[in-house]
Write a structure and sequence with these properties.
- This protein is α/β, with parallel strands linked by helices and about 350 residues long.
- It has helices spanning about 1-20, 30-40, 55-60, 80-85, 145, 160-170, 180-195, 205-215, 225-235, 260-270, 275-285, 300-305, 310-315, 330-340; strands at about 20-25, 45-50, 70, 120-130, 155, 200-205, 220-225, 235-240, 245-255, 320.
- Strand 1, helix 2 (about 30-40) and strand 2 (about 45-50) form a beta-alpha-beta unit.
- The protein binds pentane-1,5-diamine.
- Pentane-1,5-diamine (N2P) binds near residues 28, 205 and 226.
Length: about 350
């Protein structure tokens, strides 16, 4: 009898799991109406857990998350290490016909040739958010953070490559430099910025945005979409792409190697790649869509906004964060020093 009960419990758990899709995603990156529509269409219940950086996500996956989540949303540069660590499973492309909707610019990316493990979700950039009610002139440079002669409190971003990227661009270097001297110089600048009386701490992109909106800082290093969405709700805040340039990201949907419900994961990825769903996502998030078939449904004013779809001289200064292989260690070492001192 006991055995039978245990078996029943096991079977009902397995059945319940098949009705669930577990999404592990950056905070404030999903329209709840899209989740509701997906649940209704497929009779699945979506459970969501949130993270604030690629480093957070990777640590969770390595600590057992690899068998707990069905869909995750890693950025470009982290995908090759995740593949190497065997944390991802190849996509079954027969189950994702909507992959054809991706703009060729965002399909077959260098960090995942042939979209073997990932499909583009949204893209964007980091930059500076500021309080219009606390500055005399709108900022246009990383100097408001890295020049000690400037004034105004700031929140730094707790994410290695974006924050180091800002310091590197301010110094005139590439976000993807492999030159130890340049990485160390950026680390030194960042350490000084952290130690400054003007610094109010490190936060994830959303946390930094929230502290700025709450009025605890004049400037914050944030992601564009979060800031642009907040600015549409609060006239006192705005976002700027610093003139020196900043980090671009392409975030992607992927399936952990031991996902409990890969079938639901493929359905979800295909759903997000629907033209109208892709547009709904970007219109809600205020991040750019990598889905070409979604473009006709994107809000016109967002398509014209260079802080969402950069063009010309702005675009020329932005750099995609690349996987640096072994040289990523240079960044990790410098970052650890910045955070621990
Ligand atoms: C949305 C998170 C932005 C994604 N809050 C940064 N890769």
């Amino acid at each position: 009898m006991k055995k039978l009960l245990a078996l029943l419990a096991f079977v009902s758990l397995a059945l319940a799991q098949n009705k669930e899709m577990r999404l592990f995603i950056w905070s404030e990156y999903m329209d709840p109406a899209i989740i509701a529509a997906f649940e209704k269409q497929y009779g699945l219940k979506v459970r969501i857990e949130l993270y604030e950086s690629n480093e957070d996500m990777l640590a969770k996956l390595q600590a057992g998350g690899v068998s707990q989540y069905d869909v995750i949303v890693p950025s470009d540069f982290i995908i090759p290490s995740m593949v190497q660590l065997k944390l991802l499973q190849p996509l079954d492309k027969g189950k994702i016909p909507n992959l054809k909707n991706l703009d060729p610019k965002f399909a077959n990316p260098p960090f995942d040739p042939g979209n073997k493990y990932s499909a583009a979700y949204q893209w964007g950039m980091s930059g500076i958010m500021y309080r219009k009610d606390k500055v005399k002139t709108p900022p246009d440079s990383w100097a408001v953070i890295f020049d000690p002669k400037q004034s105004g409190n700031y929140v730094l971003m707790d994410s290695i490559r974006e924050m180091m990227g800002g310091a590197l661009r301010y110094l005139g270097y590439s976000i993807n430099t492999r030159d130890p001297k340049q990485v160390q110089a950026a680390g030194k600048l960042l350490l000084e910025a952290k130690k400054s009386k003007r610094a109010v701490g490190f936060e994830g992109g959303v946390g930094a945005k929230n502290r700025l909106v709450a009025g605890s800082a004049t400037y914050a290093v944030v992601y564009n979409g979060d800031a642009i969405k907040a600015a549409s709700e609060n006239p006192n805040v705005a976002f700027v792409v610093p003139k020196e340039g900043a980090a671009l990201f392409l975030d992607n949907m992927a399936i952990p190697a031991k996902a409990p419900n890969p079938d639901a994961a493929h359905k979800f990825i295909n759903f997000i790649l629907e033209p109208k769903i892709g547009a709904q996502l970007s219109n809600y998030n205020r991040y750019a869509t990598p889905n070409k078939a979604a473009l006709p449904f994107i809000n016109k004013e967002d398509l014209k906004n260079p802080a969402i779809y950069p063009t010309g001289s702005v675009k020329a200064k932005l750099e995609f964060v690349l996987d640096l292989g072994k040289d990523a260690r240079l960044y990790d070492e410098v970052w650890t020093q910045v955070k621990s001192r």
